[in-house]
Structure formats: structure tokens, C-alpha cells
Amino acid sequence: MTDGTDRPPETSPAQPPAEGQKPKPPSRWRAFVSLLWSTGIFHPEEWPIRRMLGTAIGLCAALFLLAVARQGIAHVREEQVGVLVNNLTGNLELRDRVGYHIFCPYLAKFYVLDKTIQRLDLTFAQKPGAMAQDVKLKTVDGSNVSLDVVIDFKLIPEKAVEILRRSGDDLKFVATWVEPFARHTCFASFSQLTTEEMYDAAKRNERAQAALKDLNDQLGPHGVNVVAVIPGEFRFYKEYEEVIQQKKLADQQVEEQQAQARAAQQDQERQIIEATKKSEAKLVGFDGECANRIIQAQAEADKTRREADGRYGATVLNADAEFFSMGKQAEGTRATLLAEAEGTQKKSQAMVGDGGVAMVGMEYAKRLKSIRFAASPIAREPTVQQFAVQPGEAAAVGAQPAPAPAAKPAPPAPRPQPQEEGQSQ
User: Fold this and answer.
1) Check: CATH 3.30.479.30 for 116-236?
2) Element (H, E) at 49
3) Cα–Cα distance list, 367 to 15, 352, 370, 404 (Å)
4) What angle do CA 276, 278, 283 make, to 5 degrees?
5) Tens-place pLDDT, residues 242-299
6) How many CA atoms lie within 13 A of 220 on its CB side?
């Protein structure tokens, strides 16, 4: 108890140390309390204990809420995947939803892993001060080769819990799983090539595809997907590099000569092909010309045939028209001749009587008018007879019929006329 004065509490006098023991130095706490009492401002009996206790509790609650607000909210982006770890039960839960996730800090912890494509450079050229990471291997024929390989990979989001449980957060699974498996697989795959095959990009790519398949088989169960295995530069020992360079130069000369021979052969084949194409083109042109001429001849023959058919039809029509005209003309001539014959017959019948004798006499008289008769008496018989004409005899002589005129030849029979359309047979 204190008496209200500002003085430190009384202390018992220090006991003298026993014989053979060193005196103990005063404790720092005692020295601090003595210094605090000596200032005269430390009065615990005057402090408001309840108010201080409520303030402390409120401050602790505010600090807890601030910690929850700061540490209990996690943001998962599109290229990330989250894993919630329960610190009480040890359970791990996958949270792959994009957005904000709320949890209770200190009782749980939220890890965010990157699921984008990552790159592992197993190359000779590294950052300054870093060791070379290239793959050292030995070819089938015993050559030592340093090969640069680039591995592109990404984690499988569905297996993020296994990756966190086995390897830890961030990219620790790269050093734990990816790099050892990649180095061993590349060594095993590219070591199957010979020295000459190392210069063949197709062979290297083939072995890279085989290494990609093996890596996916090995790293798939661990939640890692290898996207690509890209072989880069490779290096030999210096002496071996010189020998290889000389061999490459010799191979290039041989390849150049072979290329020239192939070029000459290809040029010869090209000339043969061109000549063949030209001959085929001429043959095709000749075939086309022949076909054209055949078509023209057929067209000309068709034209001539059509013209002949037209002329034949015209001739037949003209002949029919001429035949019809001649038939009509013959019928007219026949009718005329029949009429003339009938007239002549009627005339001859009219001349049978006295009128006919008179007409004959008149004609004889006309004829005798222009005739001069000269006669000399000649007697064929020695007797002289008297010529006399009696009237009865003259009538008998005049009654004799005149000779009928000679019949004219009958006209040719007319050709049958073509029947017109619509007339019955």
C-alpha cells in the first residue's frame, strides 16, 4: 500500500551475498518501475478500468473486422483458379468461379494459381549470373551435344487441388515436376538421333513430338499439361564442330553437283514435256480442223440435199402444172378439131346438092379464067367421032357426090387430170 506520496515502494535492504558468491545486478524491470515512480505521473489507482476495457475490446473488434475485410476477400480472374484451404480440418476446395470469394481469415486460407501457358527455357543463354540450363545429351554414335529446348505448359484447372497439395502454391510445381521430367524426357528422346540427324530439322521435330507425348503421359497425373516442346540451337565440341563443318561443306558440294544434275534432267524432261504438249496441241488442232471440215461438209451436203429436195418438189409441181395445162390445151384442141370436123361434115353435106355443083363450077370457072388453052388436033384413033353432051347426062354427072376430104389425124388422148383435194375417187 502507498501513503499517497509520490515515492517508490520501500524495499527490503539487500542481503549481503554469501561468501564465495557474486552480488546479483538489479533487474531491468525493477529499474524501470523505480524510474516510472520517480516521475510522479503514474497513478494506477486513478485509471477508468471499465472504460479502458471497453475501448480495448472495441479496438480489437475493429482490428478483427479490418483483418477480415483485408484478408478474407480473394479475387479470382479469368486466367486464374482458386483453392480454399480449411486450416481447421485441412480440407482443400476448388474455387474456379471468376469473381470475389469471401472466407474467414486465420481459419481458412485462399490460394490463387495461374492457369495460363507458362514457359520453361532449358537453354544455354540465361540471365546474367545464372547457370546454363541447356540439355546435355549424347547421340547414338557417341557425340556430345548441348541442346536448347523450350517447354510450353500450363496447369490443369480441375487438378489445382492436387498441385497445391503436392507442390505448394505459385509455380513451385515447375521445379518439383516439370523441369525434372522435361530434362529427363528430352535427354531420352533426342539421344536417339545420330550426329547427322541432329542437323535435320524434320528429325528433331519428330523427336520433339515424341517427347511431348511422353511428357503429357508423365505430367498429366500431376495436373500439368504440356502444350509444346520446341527444340532450339545445338552445339558440339569445338574440334568436332570443325570436322562436321568440313563434312557439311563436302556434302554441300556433292548436293550442288547432284542438284545441277537434277536440274539438267528436269530441264530435259521439261523440254520433252513441252515438245509432247506442242505435238498434242497440233494433233488436237488437226483433229478439230478435221472435225470442223466434216461438219462443214455435212452442212454443205445437207444444204445441197435440201436444195435438191426443193428443186425436185418445184419440178414436180411444175410438171404437174404443165401436165394439167397440156391436158386442158389438148381438150381444147380436141374440142376445136371436133367442132371443125363437124363444120366440115355439115359443109360437105351442104355441098352434096345443086349448090355444091354450082360452087364447084364457080371454082372451076375461076381457075379456068386464068388458064389459056392451046390445042392441036390429034387423033389417036383413025376414026373421027363427034362429042356431044346431053342434058340428062349433065344432070347425072352433076348429081355425083364430091369426094370426101381426107380425115385429119385424131388428136392424142389427153392425160388424166390430177384429182383435187376433197374430190372422191
Assistant:
1) yes
2) helix 49-71
3) 229, 21, 6, 21
4) 95
5) 776 777 788 888 888 888 888 888 888 888 998 888 888 888 888 888 888 899 889 8
6) 8
